[in-house]
Structures are given as structure tokens and as C-alpha cells.
Amino acid sequence: MKRKFLEDLGLEKEAIDKIMAENGNDVNAAKADYEALKQQLEAANTQIQERDGQLEQLKNATGDVEAMKQQIATLQAENKTAKEKYEADLKDLKLSAAIKMAVGNSAHDADLVAGLFDKAKLILSEDGQVTGLEDQLKAIKKEKAFLFREEKAPQQIKGGKPAEGRGTPPADKKPSEMTYSEMCKYLEANPGATIE
């Protein structure tokens, strides 16, 4: 989404900034997902090539049965180790992506802040949810607040302000001219009204 498109719609600068920030978060999330999938695909392709090579090696091997059994056992052990490494790398990649998503644009340097997380204390569930992430993020924000951008309170739009349920005294009488019963009746009909 381009800023000019929103400006042409006649939106105010503050609204455009908020829309662009939210769009940036969505784009960053999509990039993180893309990078994770890309790395998974590269790792899978590498494993396929390694196994194809191993199968070709076995096909071309000549010799006795015991030597081939030993070679098969060795290859199975190597494949198991490679699979465990792949799963650990994939978990680390998912945790890193989740951390960067949680940090988002709130940090001056997302990579630096991501390095402060203790991944050993994070639990990655089957559905991709990370337990313990919010607690660590809050602790890091508290301990090292200088690493994060200052959160700006939404600016208040100046100009006319609606009555917000508050009434005004009847036009024909000033509050000082009202009787006690008129004042009670008025306040009952207009809860939260202020009388000056």
C-alpha cells in the first residue's frame, strides 16, 4: 500500500501514519513467514540431495554383505542426526520469527532485542504458539527500556467536543435561579451534568 493512495483519498496524516504502521506489521509478518518457509524448503532440498547421493553410493557399491550392512547402519545414524539437527534448526527459526513478530516495530533494533530472549525458556506448541514470549518481552522492556521506541499516546483531535451525555441547564434559568427541586429534577434527567 502506498502513502500517496491514502493521501489521494483525503485521509489525515495521523490516520495515514496509523494505517501505514499496521500495514508494515502485516508485511513484516508475511516476510517472516516467507523466510521461514524458504529456509525449510532449502533444508529439505539439501537433505533430499544428500540422501540421493547416499542411495547412489549404495547402488554402486560392490563388496560383501557385512560391509554394506555397516554402511547402511552408518548412513541411518547420519540421517537420524541430520533429521534432529533439521528439527532443532526449524524450531529455532520459528522461535526467532515469533520473537521478531512480538518485538515488531517497537524496538530500535529488533535483532538486538531478539538476542536478549532466552529461547530455552520458550515453549513452541504444535500450532505454532509460543509460551513465555510475552513475559520475557515485558521483562526486557522493563529492564532495558532504552532499546524500545517511546509509545506515543494517540493525539487528541482539537476542535468541537460532543456533550458526552452532559446536559446544560435550561436556557430560561441559570443554575443560581433554580429551586432545589428543579435542580434535582434537572440532574436526574441529565446524569453526569456539571453545573457551573
UniProtKB/TrEMBL annotation:
Keywords noted in UniProt: Coiled coil
InterPro entries: SCAF (IPR009636)
Pfam families: Phage_scaffold (PF06810)
Residue ranges that the Swiss-Prot or TrEMBL entry lists as coiled coil: 20-92
Keyword Coiled coil (UniProt): yes
Record region (Disordered): 151-180
Protein name: Phage minor structural protein GP20
Annotated organism of origin: Enterocloster lavalensis
